[in-house]
Structure formats: structure tokens, C-alpha cells
Amino acid sequence: MGFYFENFQSMHAHEGMNIEKTLETVARRYIGQNPAHPPTYRAFSRAGILRGKDYRYEADFNKHFPDAELGQYVYAWAKIWADSDGAIKFDIDCHSPTLIYVNGAQIFRSDIFQERYFDKRTPLEIQLKAGWNHFVLRMRKTLGGFGAVYGTWLGKLPYYFLVPDPAREGQEGWIFTEPRDTELAIIPGGANALTPDSLPEKIKWLPAAAWDARQRAAGQMTRLFGKQKNIAAIGWTRAQFLAPGKATCTLKGRARGKLSITIGDEVVFATAKAGAIKAQVPVPFGIHDVIVRSECGGGDWGFELDITQGSEPVALLNPANMTGSAAKWIYLGPVTADAELDLDALTDLNKLHAGATGESVYWRIDEPDTWVRPYNDNALYGKWNYPLGVTLYGLLHAGAVIGSEETRRYVADHFQFCCDTYDYAMWDRAQYGGATNVHHLLTSLDSLDDCGSAGSALLETAKYFDLDGYRRIADVVADHISTKQIRLSDGTFFRKNLMHTFHEDTLWADDLYMSVPFLVRYYQLTKDARYIDDAARQFIGFKRHLYIPRIKLMSHVYDFMRGKATGIPWGRGNGWVLFSLSELLAVLPADHELRPQLLDFFREFSSGILAQQDSDGMFHQVVNEHDSYPETSCTAMFAYGFSRGVQNGWFKDAAPYIRSACRAWEAICKTSIDKLGNVHGVCRGSEFSFQSEYYKRDLLWNLNDTHGIGIVLLAGIELCKLRDFL
Known about the structure:
By secondary structure, this protein is α+β, with helices and mostly antiparallel strands. Helices cover about 30% and strands about 25% of the residues.
């Protein structure tokens, strides 16, 4: 029996030391399990309870209901899905007396201390059952306040709730009552009260999902965009034409002003004034965009349109495949009346568009204050975070080794999506209070974790693919690292003023990878020596704080609150250091003043690591404590660093490192990679501790964790190069 699976299930049992086959299997498994799906587009009401910059919901009912009376109640209700039984961390600030119910049962009641210190978080761990879980908060108005701030414990690990109304199924947010004098007789979310209609009491739930009678009498463009002269707006749907060949369809309806109708890429109807819409149009079989461009002359404007083929109505499809509303049309405006109709640009849901007064606009639906909002619900594809940075770096170069342009294109498409949606994500952040559902890290940078690793992989990918818009993101990352990241007086990076307060006033070995590879590549891009100089100096500062000369290894963290390093040589933390130092030395000019010092450190540090390899070829979670589990990501990074050291002539005696790298790769193929390409034994994302038991007993490994997949691929690539070099 191997450590993680039976020996016969290992990659080595099936492929031996066939590195290319191993790389191919790991890469294809990853891509197969993370297909390039687009975002989920949800209807979203800006009149509801919004999430703020810390990604918690801000229920300020003094703002929603300024005329509410003392003692009145408001109930807020939402649901969240759980794949299995478990718990979520949930924080709440109680601005007034608050109860929390989960699935009909009360699980929290605020006390006077929580209400007195209303800006101090109360952490809760709330048990969820597999399936839908209903949350209800009851808040009561006092002179002290009316409402609460609640949700995720950490904005870097956001989650969101969905509306429990079937008519708005899939819409993010909470529905809430108007202020009421009495408590609800039945708490929603219990076994027999899972929808608003199933409650015995008929309640008006807010925010409103329908227009009032006066608003419904006007054209939809009037409702949405007002009556400003010389502006235009776009309506867009998709129609499913099922008649074979090219069959005639009938357009019927009403124009409330100047408009044109395009089906596919052909204008099929136009009018300069209000009146009936009536046309016979031949349309080929298939699903085609239907776009109506409407102009405002200063009065009521908009349109009604029905499409039929024969006696059957043509089915309309929401072009965003939107959830949260039954709306079939989405609308964009106001735009200038003389703006050209560029259909390719218009129908790209990743893009913002120029509004009539210079502001950016995005799609909305014909419901009060409700927009189309993208949510990247993919587990990994299109996301931006530091473990994905190294994963994509590995996939990019694995694709070259195994001759798979498809793999390389997957990486390029991933980053192109990041580039394409960056402007939207920044607009979304401003539009809805601070919490985005696309690039939540990239839009709220407060640490090197948020930008350096993914930014480095972006620059690496841009060497091989033409990524539209990549330079703008690269410059934002460079600006954060160079001018905004907190530093010690000697210029060394450390962590301060973070959303994640546990990391406050600390310096992490990990941050060498979160900064140096990006600085190296930005130096290559700009030819500006400031960036390579900064990268080199970081190693001097980090070594000063973290190096343990006795064992020639690095502590994981230096804690400035205590004024000392943890003294624990965590495996991946040490891996990040060797990995990043090899990235730097590969580019650092031969005549750089710090090169001799950094080469000496590389050799000394490598010797300390080499001494800790076990008899099977693996390295361990705590590098010098072999009762900790054999850890895959650090083993791969040490093999990577040793292989590069040999090929670049950085070792005075290369033989021990050749043997070590080869043994490490063989051990990974036997211990960590199974025959299906699953990667085992990768430590999950860490906090830190001054005792090794945390790393050995609490900080356990995950299957197919992105902290290790790319690193394993990169190690295999370097072993291929080492093989050819030797």
C-alpha cells in the first residue's frame, strides 16, 4: 500500500518514468474537469440588500425605511446551497436586536454586548444540511439602530445567498418585509414554509419585482431610461426559428417612436415614427439574435413585438441564458442616438459599452432597478488567484512538452477571459457596493497573494499569445507591488492593512513567489532594472528574517507582533523560496552586484533541503520532521529547483542534485499521481503557527489542489529538460 493509494494505481505502475505521458494525463484531467464555461448571468436588484467591500450583506433598514417606528420588525430571508452536510463560517455585526433562523430553527440571538459593540464581528459556525438551506434574520428597530451586517467571515472567501421566491429563482440576494408591528407567526424556511406562497400570512416581499400600473402603461425604454431627447437604447433577445429551410416569419407589434429591428445581421424592419410594426421576413432555421434599436424623441418610447411562424409563436430565449427572472429581453442604454450598431461588440457580454453621457453602461432587464449580472461560478476556469497562477504556468509549458496546442490555448483563453472582464469587474464593484462576482481578488488588491502569481503567469502567457488588454492588468499589478504593497524600512515586503486580519504584521516565505517571478517578467517586458533590483533585494530581506542557519532552511513566517520567526520550516513555504530564487537567477544579469550572494544562498539552502529527502525520495510537510506526511508540492518544487540549478551550472557538485531530482520525480509518480492523473498529497492553503503540530495534524492535504498541480507539471518539464541536458 502506498501512502495515498494502492501501488498498482499509481502513474508509475502504468507509465514508469515516461514523463511526457504523466504530464499529458495530469494536464488533460485538469482541463476535462474544468471546462471553459461562461459565467452564470443572474438578474440582480440594486434596490435590495447589497454586499459591501468586505463581501458581507449590509442590511441598513434605517436607510430602507426612514419612517419605521421604534419596536418594529423586519425579516430578511434567503437560501444557500450545500453540496453536503457541513458548516460555513458566518460573521455578523448587530446594529439592533437580531435573531437568526436556519431552516426554521433559531440558532442565534444577539445580546447587549453584541448590540453595544455593533462594529465588532461576532463569528458563528453554522451547520448546513446537503441541499438548500434557508436563512431568516429578524431585526428590530431601537434608538441604537435598525439592521445588521452579515455574511462571509472573509472577503477573500466569498459566498452569496439566493432569493427563495420561485418567481426569481437563481437571483442573488435577500427578500425582506416592510416594517411590521408583530412577529411572524411562522418562520419562513421551515419544512412547510419554503416559498413565500406557502406561508399562511400574505406578505409584500421587497425589493419589488414588478412595475406599478402607471409604469406598466409606459414603454419599457421610458421605464428604464427616462425621456431624454436624442438618446437611444437596445433591446436584445434570441429567437428559435424551427421551420426548415428559410421560412417566413411575421413581426407584429407597436413602435412608440423611431426604431429598427435586426434579425441575425440584417435589418428587417425600420420606422421613423410611432405606429404599428408589421412585416413578413424570411429567416433560416436556427437560433438568431433579434435586436431592436429604439430612439427617444423626448416623449414615451419603446416597443412591443411578437414573432410568429405560421400559427405558432416563435420561442424567445434570454441571450444571457439568465437565471433569476423569466425575462426574455435584455436592454442596454442610454446610448447616443448616432452611435453605430456594432453587433459583434454589442453582443459580447464580457464588455461594457459607452453610454450617452460618457459613462459605461451594461445590460439590464425590464424590472425595477434590476440588471443582468455575471457570476463566475466555475470552480477554477476564468478565476484569478495565486494557486491558479502557478497551475496555469505549468499547463502552458506542459502543453509545449506534450505537443498539445489545445492545452496552451486553454491557458490563453483563461487569461483572455480575465482581460476581457476586468473593466466590467471594476464597474461592477463601483455599481453594487464593492463585492464583485468576477475577479473579487483582482478588483480589491490588498496583498501580494491577490496579484503577483497570477500576474506572473499572465506575463508568461503573453510571451506566446496575443492577449488583448493584458498590459493594463500587468501595469495594475506592477503598480501595486512597487508602490502600494506595504514594506519594511529596508524595502522588504510584509503583510499589513489586510482584509484577512490573522495575517496582520507578518512576513511570509510564500510572498517571494507572490512577488519575485512577476517582477522578473515585468523587468523582461519593460527593460527597467528597478524591477529586477527589487526582486533581488527581497531575498536578502526575507533571508534576514526567516533563515535558520542551523538547519539551512527557512521559517514559514515572521510575526512582528512577537518580534520573531515561527521556526517551523513548512514544506511548501521552503519550496516557494527555492522555486522563486531559481526564477530570479535565470534572469538576473551576470554582473548584478547581488548575484554572488544569491548564488551562495541558493547552494547553501539547497544543501539544507537535500539533507531532508527521505528514503523514498519524498520531502515532507514539515521539512525536517519526517513524521509529517510526504508533501507533493514541496517535493516537486525542490526537484524543479535542483534541475534548474544543474542545467544552469549553479552547483559546484551537481551529482547529488541530479540524483535527488530524479528520485523526487520517481517518488511523486509512485506516491502522489494516480493512473487517472489525480494529484494527491498537496497541502491546502495555510495559515501559520509557532508549533509544528498545526502543519502536521491540522493543515492536511487535498486531492487535486491547485497549489500543487502546476508545480508538479513544472517539475516534470524540468526533468525532461534535465534528461535532455545530461
